[in-house]
Amino acid sequence: MEKNVPKKKKFSTKFLYSQKIAPYVFISPFVITFVIFFAYSIVNMVIMSFQNVAGAKSTFIGFENYAKILPNAVFRKALRNSIFYTIVSCALMIPIPLVMAAMLNSRHMRAKSFFRSITFIPALTSVVVAGVIFRLMFGELEGSFMNQVIGIFGKEPIVWLRTPLTVWIILFFLCLWRWTGVNMMYYLSGLQQIDSSLYESAAIDGAGTLQTFRYITIPLLKPTTIYVLTISIFGGMAMFSESYMIFNGNKSPNNVGTTLVGMLYRMGFEQGNMGIASAIGVIFLLIVLVVNVIQLFINGTFGRKEK
Amino acid sequence: MKKSIPKTVLLVIFFVGVAVITLLPLALLFVASLRPGQELMRNGLNFRIDWAHANLDEYRLLFSGNNAYVTWYLNSLKVTVLQVVLSLVLSSFVGYGFAMYEFKGKGFFFLLVLLVMMVPTEVIILPLYKLIIGMHLINTHTGIILPYIVIPMLIFFFRQYLSGIPKDFLDAGRVDGCSEYGIYTRIMLPLMKPAFASMGIYEGMSSWNNFFWPMIVINQNNKITLPVGLQSLLSPYGNNYDILIAGSVFAILPILLLFALFQQYFIEGMTAGGVKG
Amino acid sequence: MKKRLMTTVLAAALVGSAMFGAMPAAASDDGSTQGTNTFVDGGTEMSFWTFQELHVAFWTSMADVWNEQNPDRPINLTVTNGESHSLHTKLLTACEAGEGTPDIADIEIGYYGSFVNKDYLIPINDAVEPYKDDVVMSRVTMYGDRDGNYYGVDFHLGATVAYYNMDIMNEAGIDPADIVTWDDYIEAGKTVLEKTGKPMTAVETNDLFLPQLMMLELGAQYVDEEGNPNLVTDEHIQVIDKIREMIDLGIVIVAPGGGFHTEEWYGFLDQGGVASVLMPLWYMGRFTDYMPDLDQKMGIYQIPVWNEGDVREVLQGGTGTSVIKGTANEQLAKDFLAFAKLSKEGCTYEWNNLGFDPIRTELWDDPEITENPDNKFLKYFLTNPFDILKANGTDLTAPDISGLYSTTYATLVSTTYANAFEISLDTPAADLLQEEQDSIIF
């Protein structure tokens, strides 16, 4: 393999033509940024979580930060909020796009690509613009759009943003609005990879639409579902900006919309308590890792079953 | 065939409904941009509009020089372009390394890529912020861009994309006397154009719309990016709704335009990794 | 090729922007996010942050006046304006980073404690010294620490008054001048509700003006001697029970929008939604700006007190403008700051343009100020606010914002009052406050 390279080569030439060195050079941008920004940050965060952080005068205080944060009512509420948001958003963001994709993919459907594009448009908006619109749409004024809508049905105006139930409705609606199109797209590309002969033979066997959907479409879309589930979990646990925009700041009434990241932001950036904020970060990291392990485990067992 | 007509009708009606709900918030925003912000404040966001008095004053205000909107817009453009170019070049470089070579520790390094992919950036936002302070990059556009110049998601995508390209190309290049890096720049880069297009759009979108990290890194009003600037207008002190609403419309418009032109790249870009993952 | 196309589109967007830019500016100049004074050659460049659009013009005008009077030390001032919450967070993180901080900044009272606590501000005692005898010093020293240093000066005295909607009060047949105690206020409120169907006033869930006012009248604070959060006090319980009593009677409602600085509330108040609102005098500007329909309808009176004979005035709200550590022009910044806020010129501007009750006492007796027929605030309201200032003198209770006040404040305005007045109305005040106290991390 080395025969094309002149025997007497300078160091630089050797470097340029070496197939041993090349891959390491190629992946070096990743390794460098990984070490500087990721690994270093995580180590630093773990250290800070055991400290009373005050610049050069930082002192180690053992588990005190954790002891303060773990029993704290607001922190627990934020954690509950994040988990609740994640679970419900997964419950919404998988079946709805899946069914819609199947409907759109139906041979009876017309103007497929037009509708596909339309549903995709909200994903193009930033969370800021989307948040501004939703905040105003769900204003508590009588003339705010959603109050006008419920007014048609004879309902009194609602104080949308200060009632826990309606706050959740807004957050989930916002999530559905922005991401249904994208998730639907995942499922559409999944559907296109399903061998159409499977459907044909099912039709010959006399299977109905629902049966085909249940016994062919859903199982064959499992890889897509697992992927969508993964991104939904991480999107859900990391939710912050949506709440920040809806409430115009990290300050929802009675913390109805405060999330894990919101709590981290509050302690670290708004109150400048780096030790506590780092402890929250470490707890967050542990949750993410646990979810990953569970995910891998379930994936693994499913994978074996299919074989 | 008789049976399928009502089915078609039902499906189309359903999706027309979906389309209406999807477009409605944007339509509300657009209608609001044609009337004074004061009215919005007093009556709420709705479709009630006196068309005789509808005007483009809010848009004129945006570019009147009385505010920093244009500065924010240009900041966002600058950050987006730099971020897209850097992340595409570097990530494709890394992805190429993973796709084309066998080397010691490959599995380990790729595991690291997956690890970074699996941890939401919000987890390390605090130490990252301290690090950027330490590097004296706080309050700079470099500070926004630098931590995100190598994107695991892009590495993953490029590796996937390149694994479909026969390795014969490499050997042909070597026979022609190309260096290992010459093969990448002369032979592989042209082959990756479609991948660059879809990933460029994906990365451009996320950079253009990014809010949390730029909000943390930049302190000064004249350096902030568009989403952060728009958020700063949502203030109870002083009436900035004119700029907020028109500015929001104008923030989406270029993306809508690009979407209309390069739809397939958008969809490919934003759903990359889906089935392949 | 695609790349070229994309570049073309981006370029087109830019050209579009430029074309819009060439259009004549709209008549309205709302939404200015940045302002400068008239720059002079050799002026020292200084940056300034504020969260209130109206302050931009004040600071740039004062810089011009300063340059006239101090031609040897001119200033070229650039003022930027941003959303309050994110601006304060940015300022705090910039101070933490020690980079990107402005020379001077407006810091809202609720956030002030953090900056003092973390030692991010420069003491201004020496710069204030020349003005000491002419101003209400309790308003200056409140922006200080326990060592006698003070760091900020407010725009105004911040005296709290009662704004009554006289249409409603007349309809109910009540003269606000007769309302002295909270019990009087409640009785009047019942009559108003009965005769007009309107609530007497509103309470905020995202801010603390009403409960804090009642606390200060009792001489109680939210932080203890050491500056630690101290929510569970007899006075606090008494205040919450009193407000809840009024909520039960239907004479107090939760403010639409949750606070007195929301769009929803402005609209509600303007349409005559409540009979009165208890806020500091600086709130006059909100009336003139957002409540056009209440012109010539509002009367300003003294606040109710717990016992007859109590001083009927407290200091609330405000903004401590401060010099930030790291500035290259410490002395100039301090001198300019003291001049702008404490000089006769500055206080006169603040009163005339912003409706801020002057911190400088000589202005209270100056007929050119107090009887100025062209003043938009005097014209708007039916009674003269200076009567209240003169009646109550200068020995006023100010909130203690030292120590961990900012952290405490963040809890009060996010959960405590939302729970106390809207969500958990049935939880006894003592239990509720204990829970809130326990939730504060410090």
What does this structure look like?
- The complex is a heterotrimer of chains A (307), B (277) and C (442).
- Chain A has 307 residues and is mostly helical.
- Chain A is 70% helix and 1% strand.
- Chain A has 15 helices and 2 strands.
- Chain A has helices at residues 11-17, 22-48, 64-69, 73-93, 95-105, 112-120, 127-137, 145-152, 164-192, 196-204, 209-220, 222-237, 241-246, 260-270, 274-306, and strands spanning 51-52, 59-60.
- The relative contact order of chain A is 0.12.
- Chain B has 277 residues and is mostly helical.
- Chain B has helices at 4-32, 37-43, 57-62, 69-100, 106-118, 125-134, 141-145, 152-162, 168-175, 180-191, 193-209, 212-217, 226-232, 241-261, 263-271.
- In chain B, helix 11 crosses helix 15.
- The longest helix of chain B has 32 residues, at 69-100.
- Chain B starts with a helix and ends in a 6-residue tail after the last helix.
- The mean pLDDT of chain B is 86.
- Chain C has 2 domains: 41-157 and 317-385, Periplasmic binding protein-like II (D-Maltodextrin-Binding Protein, domain 2), CATH 3.40.190.10; 160-314 and 404-439, 3-Layer(aba) Sandwich (D-Maltodextrin-Binding Protein, domain 2), CATH 3.40.190.10.
- Chain C is globular.
- Mean pLDDT of chain C is 89; it is low at 1-32.
- At the A-B interface, helix 2, helix 5, helix 6, helix 7 and helix 8 of A face helix 1, helix 4, helix 5, helix 6 and helix 10 of B.
Task: Please outline the helices and strands.
The complex is a heterotrimer of chains A (307), B (277) and C (442).
Chain A: H1 11-17, H2 22-48, E1 51-52, E2 59-60, H3 64-69, H4 73-93, H5 95-105, H6 112-120, H7 127-137, H8 145-152, H9 164-192, H10 196-204, H11 209-220, H12 222-237, H13 241-246, H14 260-270, H15 274-306
Antiparallel strand pairs in A: 1-2
Helix pairs in contact in A: 2-15, 4-9, 4-12, 4-14, 5-9, 6-9, 9-12, 14-15
Chain B: H1 4-32, H2 37-43, H3 57-62, H4 69-100, H5 106-118, H6 125-134, H7 141-145, H8 152-162, H9 168-175, H10 180-191, H11 193-209, H12 212-217, H13 226-232, H14 241-261, H15 263-271
Chain C: H1 2-22, E1 34-36, E2 44-50, H2 53-69, E3 75-81, H3 84-97, E4 104-108, H4 109-117, H5 125-128, H6 138-141, E5 152-153, E6 160-165, H7 166-172, H8 182-196, E7 201-203, H9 209-217, H10 234-249, E8 252-254, H11 263-270, E9 276-280, H12 284-290, E10 298-301, E11 319-323, H13 330-342, H14 344-354, H15 367-370, H16 376-380, H17 386-392, H18 405-423, H19 429-439
Parallel strand pairs in C: 2-3, 2-4, 7-8
Antiparallel strand pairs in C: 1-3, 4-11, 5-11, 6-9, 6-10
Helix pairs in contact in C: 2-14, 4-18, 7-8, 13-14, 18-19
